[in-house]
Specification:
This protein has helices at residues 28-41, 50-53, 57-67, 81-94, 104-108, 110-117, 130-141, 219-222, 231-245, 261-273, 291-299, 314-320, 326-338, 356-369, 386-392, 421-436, 439-447, 452-474; strands spanning 3-7, 44-48, 71-75, 98-102, 123-125, 152-156, 159-162, 200-203, 206-207, 227-228, 249-252, 279-284, 302-310, 342-349, 373-378. The chain is of the alpha/beta class.
């Protein structure tokens, strides 16, 4: 049995003023790895989310000295990569443990990471982490060769060794529920726009996405093939969350929860029959739901749904790989609105080759769509995406400020765009101002509020957005 310490680096403060509206989420990826190591390796696992738990670096050092781990695993996305590196240095400076890093960012550029940071990172796990981490921990425990561990990259002397590709897990139900018991769940809250009850939990029911959006980095870890937990597994996890953690609300974090209608119907009818009485949010493609499906979802407790509409321009959508038509997107949102579901529409400004006129047309279109909430995102070209290759191919990786690669951030990070970063920020500020100063939309938002906790969070988030709009205008 090996002692394994899992860490998730800070990230919320990277949102700037908008951090007041940002949530703190349980690190599901680490949670799955922790439960997998415990079930299939009988390893002694501890896990910390320093930001949510209020742990300083000195406190983390105390944790390391107390747990005396054999292996330390650190996850990261792009914006908190530099924080992950700081954690890795800290760990190496106070422990002889092997330091392993995983997550979407390092999976996208693993050779660069291991070549640049091998002084304090022993190994990088590429892609889905459960099987690779189990075999890696077992190998470290037995002082065995890493040659047979697929899905990893490491250095042997001066040579960079990249082992074979790790196959994705096909039988998703073999993965135990995330080890939520390792961190107090009361520390985690959703984003302001998804808040209804204080007792809110995140859940992931599938992995992979069959769509091929050019801006999305999620497939780097989860792949393109859609793999699902069975409806029975999902319902059992939901029941457990309500029983053991007093959950009243769920955030379903699947990239697209609504692809498989037979499974979706089985889950929804199960929630109704079992009288779970849970309110939940999910993401969906606009062309994967209809009135019948949305009606059943609402009966099962779906109070809010998010649609990635991205653009009003057919050519831009085609370049993005988005298989939706603007008219269909508008129709779907209209149906959801008519059913009383709080709709959230997401738009991306700054795609390769997108003109200022196309951007402005998308902003006008967003007001026609009339979702309850509209989110105007400046394109963030994450490593591993086509957009990154377009905007950053000529820029050395070591010169990039990853902290600014925030999905809903303060700064436009794209380079060499047909429209300047300052103009894009100005358009985003104007779009938010026009959308949320419309009295009809304010009344629509208010009509969906059901709890004082929800109202308080909207107020706090609104103040944060006003401050951020002011910053963009000053620029």
């Amino acid at each position: 049995m090996a002692k394994v310490l899992l860490l998730s680096p800070p990230y919320v403060d990277l949102y700037g003023d908008l951090s007041k509206a940002a949530g703190r989420y349980f690190p599901l990826g680490l949670g799955y790895i922790a439960s997998y190591l415990r079930k299939y390796g009988s390893h002694d696992v501890s896990m910390y989310e320093p930001e949510a738990q209020g742990l300083s670096y000195s406190a983390i050092v105390s944790v390391i000295k107390q747990t005396q781990p054999d292996v330390i695993g650190i996850t990261c996305a792009t914006p908190n990569f530099s924080r992950a590196i700081e954690l890795a240095k800290l760990c190496k400076g106070h422990s002889p443990a092997k330091v392993v890093m995983g997550g979407v960012h390092v999976s996208a550029i693993p050779e660069f990471v291991i070549q640049t940071y091998s002084d304090f990172i022993d190994c990088v796990v590429i892609g889905e982490g459960e099987h690779s981490m189990l075999e890696l921990v077992n190998a470290y425990q037995n002082n065995a060769s890493l040659a047979g561990v697929n899905g990893i990259i490491y250095k042997a002397g001066n040579a960079v060794i990249r082992n074979g590709i790790r196959p994705y897990i096909e039988d998703m139900d073999t993965i135990p529920f995330p080890a939520r018991d390792l961190i107090p769940q009361r520390l985690f809250v959703p984003n302001m726009h998804n808040v209804r009850y204080r007792s809110c939990m995140t859940i992931l029911t599938s992995r992979g996405c069959p769509f091929n959006c050019s801006f999305c980095a999620a497939r780097i870890v989860s792949g393109k093939r859609y793999r699902m937990h069975s409806a029975q597994y999902v319902l059992e996890e939901m029941q457990m969350l309500k029983r053991d953690y007093n959950a009243r609300q769920l955030i379903i974090t699947d990239d697209t929860f609504t692809i498989n209608h037979s499974r979706l119907e089985e889950i929804c009818r199960g929630m109704i029959d079992k009288r779970l009485n849970l309110k939940w949010f999910c993401f969906s493609q606009a062309n994967t739901v209809n009135r019948e499906v949305l009606t059943l979802m609402k009966r099962a407790g779906c109070y809010s749904i998010g649609f990635g509409l991205e653009s009003s321009d057919a050519e831009i959508l085609k370049r993005m790989g988005k298989p939706i038509a603007p008219a269909k997107a508008k129709e779907t949102v209209t149906i959801a609105n008519s059913l009383g579901i709080k709709t959230q529409a997401f738009y991306i400004i700054g795609s390769p080759g997108e003109t200022k006129e196309q951007m402005e047309d998308t902003l006008r279109f967003s007001r026609e769509v009339n979702a309850t909430l509209a989110f105007y995102n400046m394109l963030v070209p994450f490593p591993g995406t086509k957009e990154f290759d377009y905007f950053f191919a000529s820029i050395p990786l070591e010169e990039i400020d990853w902290k600014k690669f925030v999905a809903v951030g303060e700064d436009c990070v794209i380079k060499n765009s047909t429209v300047s970063a300052q103009e894009i920020e100005s358009m985003i500020a104007k779009a938010n101002f026009l959308y949320y100063t419309d009295i009809r939309r304010l009344l629509s938002v208010l009509s969906h509020i059901r709890t004082f906790y929800e109202l308080a969070n909207y107020f706090q988030g609104g103040i944060a957005l006003i401050k951020q709009i002011g910053k963009w205008i000053k620029k």
